[in-house]
Specification:
Length: 281
């Protein structure tokens, strides 16, 4: 096969270009730039986004940086401006948003993310394994997403993973307390199953609150105590402690949701979204 010389290529290129209009040449250059940009984006993922697994995490990062949102919006508008417009007009986005507008939008998104984080903790205190309908209702109420949209799906999946993570960490904390308690009893020569009074003496209300501290931060604690829910949370943790001590049973642990799911868990913001959810399967 005979390859073209550099001179032949240049002559051919000049000939091709002479048949194209200025608009066509500009359009081709623009498409090439966009193609390169997309290729580079896939090839070199920004370090700041490494470790982020879903849209919600990326959004949480973006809303804290309104200047990035402004630039991204300008770039998006510039790339989608009609090629029929003059080059000068293409350099300016058709409907740019101001920094103030971006900041307001970012603040709104940040507030919704905080509300979600608060309400997911309240939901967990009510029920460790809530039905899918309850999680979907929580997401729709907070974000007003169409449940079949990609955004809703991302947040729903993230919510389920968060609840699973909460369960795992709570079980580990209870299990650690069981090991401590078992060692204390062994040193005292006790080998029989502990009496209820022993468990209550060891797992005091203060100890239970320490175990649940991470989730209680999403509640209005004063109201939580007044409506009697905290007492039922203490009972729930003690019963879970007993199951961990004898023989861990996933089904038995899940059944403990019945102790708390019918009680109110007032949220810190006062929205009480998780409290209003139906937890019936």
């Amino acid at each position: 096969m005979v390859s073209e010389s550099d001179d032949d290529k240049e002559d051919k290129s000049d000939s091709d270009e002479s048949t194209e209009s200025p608009d066509e040449k500009y359009g081709e250059r623009r498409r090439n730039r966009q193609g390169l940009t997309l290729h580079d984006t896939k090839k070199d993922k920004p370090k700041a986004l490494n470790g982020m697994k879903n849209i919600l995490e990326v959004c949480q990062w973006l809303i804290e940086r309104p200047d990035v949102l402004v630039m991204a919006n300008q770039m998006y508008n510039a790339m989608n401006t009609s090629l029929d417009l003059p080059l000068v007009n293409n350099m300016t986005p058709t409907a740019p948003i101001s920094k103030a507008t971006a900041a307001i939008s970012a603040n709104d998104e940040k507030a919704l993310a905080r509300l979600w984080h608060e309400e997911i903790k309240c939901l967990f205190l009510r029920c460790r394994a809530p039905p899918d309908d309850a999680i979907e209702s929580l997401v729709k109420t907070i974000f007003n997403y169409d449940l079949y949209s990609n955004n809703a799906e991302e947040v729903i999946c993230h919510s389920k993973r968060t609840l699973t993570d909460f369960c795992s960490k709570l079980n580990k904390k209870i299990d650690a307390k069981v090991h401590e308690f078992r060692e204390i009893r062994v040193k005292k020569g006790k080998i029989t199953a502990p009496a209820r009074s022993e468990i209550e003496e060891y797992m005091t209300s203060e100890v239970v609150e320490q175990i649940l501290y991470r989730y209680l931060t999403g509640t209005y604690k004063t109201k939580l105590k007044k409506c009697g829910t905290l007492e039922h949370l203490v009972l729930f943790v003690r019963e879970a402690f007993k199951i961990h001590y004898t023989k861990y049973d996933v089904k038995a642990i899940k059944e403990l949701d019945n102790i708390t799911k019918n009680y109110k868990v007032p949220s810190r913001s006062g929205k009480n979204i998780a409290t209003k959810l139906s937890l019936e399967y």
